[in-house]
């Protein structure tokens, strides 16, 4: 028997209330200040982590996109949430076990549109974000060699700017390693509920990206008092977007493009 979390039920009730007051215009100013981030691009309508998904996110008005970086066998930085690609012919390949040429040799399976799509590189993502002046959430999914971390940083600096980008990870050690090598780099700890690691991340000056249903309002204020930015993932209904606005989030990640 599944036991529901009473806090999650409370969040749902508050979210409904937040939407009601949002419809009265209470959050109009906040909505214009917050940056809406397309989760893996515009992934509710287009194949995630592809050039089409990122371009369409720009077209519908997202202020930025989140993506997931993996390292191919030849060191190429590729984009994949799960760490593998499913192809049009029904086969699949693990990113870490194959080269760029192998990973991009055939079209991806695309259940969303008729567009022929291929595996996307990190450099392609940064170029698209730069062309539309969009904010980049760059999530590190694994442990990375120093050479890969250096290439991520160099790619952003060469093709865009870290004024419009942040590197995030659910593995605090990734961020600590980056802080040692690049003291001024914008870094963001991605997490579920508030834990000892979350508290440590704030003490270290990392921004936070937290799962929406696990956020206590006091966490947001603590983060802001420390001079850190606060993001939520993922607000996929109008109610949860309104709740994120009420919390005072600086960034709202979503699979959808909502307007209140």
What does the model show?
The chain has one domain: TIM Barrel. Helix content is 38%, strand content 20%. By secondary structure, the chain is α/β, with parallel strands linked by helices. The strands form two sheets. Strands 1-2-6-7-8-9-10-11 form an eight-stranded parallel β-barrel, surrounded by six helices. The model has no long low-confidence stretch (mean pLDDT 92). It has helices at 6-22, 28-33, 51-60, 100-103, 122-131, 146-159, 172-181, 196-203, 217-225, 238-247; strands at 35-39, 64-71, 77-79, 84-86, 92-94, 135-140, 165-169, 187-191, 207-211, 230-233, 251-254. Helix 1 (6-22) crosses helix 10 (238-247), helix 3 packs parallel to helix 5 (122-131) and helix 5 (122-131) packs parallel to helix 6. The relative contact order is 0.15. It starts with 5 loop residues before the first helix and ends in a 6-residue tail after the last strand. It is built from ten helices and eleven strands.
């Amino acid at each position: 028997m599944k036991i529901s979390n009473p806090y999650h039920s409370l969040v749902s009730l508050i979210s409904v209330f937040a939407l009601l007051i949002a419809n009265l215009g209470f959050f109009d100013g906040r909505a214009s200040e917050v940056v809406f981030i397309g989760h893996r691009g515009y992934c509710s309508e287009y194949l995630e982590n592809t050039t089409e998904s990122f371009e369409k996110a720009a077209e519908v008005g997202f202020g930025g996109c989140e993506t997931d970086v993996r390292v191919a066998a030849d060191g190429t930085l590729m984009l994949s949430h799960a760490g593998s690609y499913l192809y049009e012919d029904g086969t699949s390949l693990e990113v870490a076990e194959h080269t760029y040429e192998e990973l991009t040799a055939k079209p991806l399976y695309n259940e969303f549109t008729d567009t022929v799509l291929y595996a996307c590189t990190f450099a392609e993502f940064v170029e698209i974000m730069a062309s539309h002046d969009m904010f980049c959430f760059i999530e590190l999914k694994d442990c990375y060699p120093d050479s890969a971390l250096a290439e991520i940083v160099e790619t952003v600096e060469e093709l865009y700017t870290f004024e419009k980008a942040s590197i995030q990870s659910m593995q605090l050690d990734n961020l600590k390693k980056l802080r040692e090598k690049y003291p001024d780099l914008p870094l963001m700890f991605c997490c579920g509920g508030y834990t000892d690691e979350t508290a440590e991340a704030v003490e270290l000056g990392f921004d936070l990206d937290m799962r929406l249903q696990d956020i206590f309002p006091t966490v947001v204020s603590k983060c802001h008092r420390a001079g850190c930015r606060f993001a939520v993932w993922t607000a996929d209904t109008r109610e949860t977007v309104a709740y994120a606005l009420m919390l005072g989030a600086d960034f709202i990640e979503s699979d959808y493009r909502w307007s209140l």
